[in-house]
Amino acid sequence: MTKKKEEKPDEAAENTKAVAKIDNNKELAKKENKEAKMERVLKAFSKSRDFSDYYIEEYVDLSEKKELTAKEKARKEELYLEIAKANGLKSGLWAANLSYGKYHEFLGTTRSMLVKEYDCKTPIELMLVDRIVANYWRSMKLDMTLNRLIEKEDGGYTFNDSKMNVIRELSKGLESTSRQLNTSIMLLKELKQPSLNIKVKNAIIGQNQQFNMDRENNQQ
């Protein structure tokens, strides 16, 4: 039977200190970790950030993992959709999804053409482009429906009270949509007008002042 090695008083004290130090370090690490989390939450509530930032952080964390559980895979797909929706104004997602899937390519392409033509970058400019696409699409659909209601494929016409009521309501909607379309186009064009060159304006004012002074001197 082996005898347990007896610790000397000094050794026992040192071991006790070492154990206490390890425990203190663990507690300190927990405290620092907790404080770091609290600081992160505080920043989240006090600092203006894109909400997609939170989803992106979590998405990146999941993307960096070599293997994902079924729950994590589902969460990753959910985050992907949330990030896409949160950035829909920048990417044109909402404009492209105005109608059924078969029209997404047309709507997205139309929106991209407008963004490129007017060099739209600010949120307001992008919002106006979305409204232009939406109102254009609605007006065209209303026009198509009206035309098919009024004229048959063989060129004939048929009218009754029910059809006239529908035509009347569709015409009101088309008129309203056309006004909104024109208003959005005019607003976008005004926003993209080149700013007045202040230097040129000041130079013209300066020249006029000099001309008036020379004229006064000649008259004296």
Molecular structure report:
It is built from 9 helices and no strands. The relative contact order is 0.05. It is elongated. The longest helix has 38 residues, at 9-46. Helices cover 77% and strands 0% of the residues. Helix 6 packs across helix 7 and helix 7 packs antiparallel against helix 8.
Q: How many strand units?
A: 0
Structural class: mainly alpha
User: What share of residues are in beta strands?
Assistant: under 5%
Q: What is the CA-based Rg, rounded?
A: 35 Å
SSE ordering: HHHHHHHHH
Distance between the ends: 129 Å
Number of helical segments with 4 or more residues: 9
Any key phrases for this structure?
220 residues; mainly alpha; 77% helix
A few lines on this structure:
This protein has 220 residues and is mainly α. The protein is built from nine helices and no strands.
Helices and strands, with pairings:
Blueprint: H1 9-46, H2 52-63, H3 70-86, H4 88-91, H5 93-96, H6 104-117, H7 123-150, H8 161-191, H9 198-219
